[in-house]
């Protein structure tokens, strides 16, 4: 097993990317919910399919293959999640993924994971993710809930507003990395309730911000 200190956290963009889920029980169903929300193109393979997963196939939200896993199921796939009660299948899928250089996560089996799924809370574009490297998913979930509760109520609106500001700066050829964003972020989070941020004229605000950023870069 890899060292529990070796994790490198990332946020994957799965929109339009092919993901294989091996297994079709309740745990796999929860994984599917998150994958579909991210826009992944999901194929599920399992000899027995839970009704809720079968319903997704009926709605053509996933591709369903009702049989045992085969190594060729990995063809064209970019990410793999395994959720079965059969340790031999989990080992086989993990070994096949390792041989192909594919990322694989086996539910509740950190020894057969090349990546760990964190506990996640979402507020629009803001993602709070907590991982214990597979040592205690329950702890990760509790910490996730604590951090989610601590998020300012206007965090989603602030994120949308700042995203527009950054996009406008890039469109004018300015460097977004040369500006100290932290004072602006703190001011927006602490002084504006959600309804006020939502009412902000984003075009005027972005224009004023870009002008201020130009002055900062000229002075720098």
The residue-averaged pLDDT reads 86
Can you tell me the overall shape? elongated
Poorly predicted segments: none
The spatial strand order of the largest sheet comes to 3-2-1-4-5
CATH level 4 superfamily of the largest domain: NAD(P)-binding Rossmann-like Domain
Task: State the distance separating the first and last CA atoms.
Answer: 49 Å
Q: What's the CATH topology name of the largest domain?
A: Rossmann fold
For the record, what CATH class of the largest domain applies?
A: Alpha Beta
Helix content: 40-55%
CATH architecture of the largest domain: 3-Layer(aba) Sandwich
Q: What structural class is derived from the secondary structure elements?
A: alpha/beta
Number of helices: 8
Question: Roughly how many Å is the radius of gyration?
Answer: 22 Å
How many extended strands?
7
Q: Helix and strand succession?
A: EHEHEEHEEEHHHHH
Q: What is the strand content?
A: 5-15%
Main sheet characteristics: 5 strands, parallel
The total number of structural domains is 3
